[in-house]
Amino acid sequence: MLDTRQYRDDQVCGDGQQVDCADRLDPSRQMLGAEQERWLLDGLGDSRARWNVLTQQIAMMQLDFDPGPAQRLSMDLWDGYKAAKDRLLTGMVERQVSNPVVLTGDIHYNLAGDLRTNFDDPSSPAVGVEFVCTSISSGGNGNPATGLPPGGTDPVNPHLRFSSYQRGYVSCEVTRAQWRSDFKVVPYVDRPGAPVSTRASLVSLDGAPGLHAL
User: Fold this and answer.
1) Which of 27, 50, 84, 129 stands the most exposed, by the fewest C-beta atoms within 10 Å?
2) Which candidate, 115, 134, 78, places its Cα nearest to that of 211?
């Protein structure tokens, strides 16, 4: 369990979503703080677990919010701390960490995607996977008409495998062979009795980083 709030450097370029914020690339910037980052990488290096799971608060995969050629990134997410993210993802590769899985909250919508050491290169291989779980009620009823269906393609964020703006939760089933996440959603939260359905199911296979839609 990571703490990405109280040890990090302040957000740069006025926070929010920004284009061409050079300060986010500063190699000295910390997301976890030096002590926690060292503890994490040492622990991952020593781990002999089949699945290595990090739970934390803010999206780690790159999220470009500009549909055009510009790259508009959130300074509050790991994108605002690129050097720290690079140290973590590259560190997992160097330590040959088995099946990294990141479970994330905070941003009030569902996401699932591949983690890469170079998100700007669509051919860069996946080194792990991330599941972002929506809020249960914040944001109201949500919008079932928006999002990326499982197995769809997002040309701006090609590592993204699924997104949804409905409320709900993520149910995870883990075996030796695979990690399966079912995104459970409800059509409304402003009154009782909402039926629960499965919006998407995605799996990552042991020894083969990356997500596949069922």
Assistant:
1) 27
2) 115
State the Cα–Cα distance between residues 19 and 68, nearest whole angstrom. Answer: 12
Instruction: Say how far apart CA 211 and CA 155 lie, in whole Å.
Output: 17
CA atoms of 9 and 124, how far apart (whole Å): 28
pLDDT tens track for 161-197: 999 999 999 999 999 999 999 999 999 999 999 999 9
Contact 84, 30 (CB under 8 A): yes
Full DSSP string of 50-112: SSEEEEESS--S-----SSSS-EEETTSGGGGHHHHHHHHHHHHHTT-SSEEEEE-SSSSEEE
| H helices, E strands: number in the chain | 2, 11
- Kindly report the pTM of this predicted structure: 0.96
